[in-house]
Amino acid sequence: MIITSKKRNLFINYFFNVDLQFFSLITFATQKNEMKIAVVGATGLVGTKMLQVLAERNFEVTELIPVASEKSVGKLINFKGKDYKVHSMQQAIDAKPHIALFSAGGSTSLEFAEKFAAVGTTVIDNSSAWRMDPTKKLVVPEVNANVLTKADKVIANPNCSTIQMVVALMPLHKKYKIKRVVVSTYQSVTGTGVKAVNQLMNEREKGTSEEMAYKYKIDMNAIPQIDVFLDNGYTKEEMKMVNETKKIMGDNSIQLTATTVRIPVMGGHSESVNLEFESEFDIQEVKDLLANSPGIILQDEPANQIYPMPMWAHDKDEVFVGRIRRDESQPKTLNMWIVSDNLRKGAATNAVQIAEYLIVNNLIN
Ligand code: 2RA
Questions:
Q1: Nearest CA to ligand 1 atom 7
Q2: 244 CB less than 6 Å from ligand 1?
Q3: In this predicted model, which residue has the larger pLDDT, 8 or 77?
Q4: Taking Cα atoms as reference points, which of 12, 78, 10, 14 lies closest to residue 42?
Q5: Fold classification of 5-157+347-360 (topology level)
Q6: pLDDT digit string (tens) for 303-344?
């Protein structure tokens, strides 16, 4: 596959801070005649969003291979005005797609990702199956796309709450070196899936829901549990934030503790983050640094009551950062508030950005 130098320059511009909207207009046409893309879990919340993001970003797809559960095989999925038949997993493997975007749960990924890889497909997997596997890369393009090589055939897409946080942390880590992070999350029900959205909507409309994604009512509530509890008293979601952050940022010395909470919101996850640095910082310099970092939009005008909210982040690809202020209780420490659409930058957009990076850098078969 040959990539023109113009495309390469545009891509480099993007990662060294140019407008995301402009970037999304670029067509990733390659000199190759075909680009077969499989979307595994194409009918789920994230799979649907992956298709939407691929279409919006003018990702050059010559053949779409949607994959879903057996009961959906043969049904039609419309992508950019054309209908595509839903494939079974084996049919999709036999089609040898160039790239497969997986969002069908951990057990599906464990069973099938390597089978796609064996036929030459590069898998970008949104489940937690491979994230902490030392042989697999865990990638947020703005932070560590440089770790990718052509040999990476199964690439892990991080957890949504981790992705949005590391996008904001990395530029500050480079400049001031992060010592410790204390994060509390306020996570959208869309992170759980369709069942949770239905539960919230039913409760909101009728006060009760027969369909229950959570043990408790979610409307008018806050549930301090995301995923299952582990032996250390933390939830799996909390430990994902701890472990994935170190792996993506390539620094095991970063100390991190998390409390993750589900709230009756759709549109995005919010995070209150307390950051302690090795070096002293200037608050205006921090704001300027974030405002000029790729994938971040600074929304920090307390005088005008402008700050990030899920309502504004919804259906956007960027990470929104605001409420940046010095922690007056100890030196070299600040507080900030990070919001992003968990289905987009937290899942689909990040996966598609990895695919774009692989293509532009000639890292797929
Ligand atoms: C959640 N982080 O919000 C999960 C989804 N990957 O539940």
A1: 191
A2: no
A3: 77
A4: 78
A5: Rossmann fold (3.40.50)
A6: 999 999 999 999 999 999 999 999 999 999 999 999 999 999
**Residue 160 annotated in active site:** yes
Q: How far apart are CA 171 and CA 303, in angstroms?
A: 26
What are the pLDDT digits (tens) for 146-163?
A: 999 999 999 999 999 999
280 CB burial (10 A radius; 0-12, 13-18, 19+): exposed
Pick the CATH number of 162-342 from 3.30.360.10, 3.40.50.300, 1.10.238.20, 3.40.710.10: 3.30.360.10
Question: CA dist 318 to 37, 93, 155, 181, 283, Å?
Answer: 24, 33, 21, 21, 22
Ligand 1 contact, 181 CB (< 6 A): no
Residues in the chain: 365
Residue whose Cα lies nearest atom 1 of ligand 1: it is 191
Every domain range in the chain assigned CATH 3.30.360.10: 162-342
27-36 per-position pLDDT tens digit: 444 445 699 9
Q: Where in the chain is the domain with CATH 3.40.50.720?
A: 5-157+347-360
* Runs of H (alpha helix) within 80-207: 89-94, 106-118, 141-144, 160-176, 194-206
User: Is the model's pTM score more than 0.90?
Assistant: yes
3-state SS, residue 259: strand
191 lines ligand 1 (CB under 6 A): yes
Q: Is 98 a catalytic residue?
A: no
Instruction: Give CB contacts under 8 A, 24+ apart, made by 26-31.
Output: 26/58, 27/58, 27/59, 27/60, 28/58, 28/59, 28/60, 28/356, 28/359, 28/360, 29/60, 30/1, 30/2, 30/3, 30/60, 30/359, 31/1, 31/2, 31/3
Name, in order, each residue with C-beta under 8 angstroms of 46's C-beta and a sequence gap of 6 or more: 103, 126, 343, 347, 348
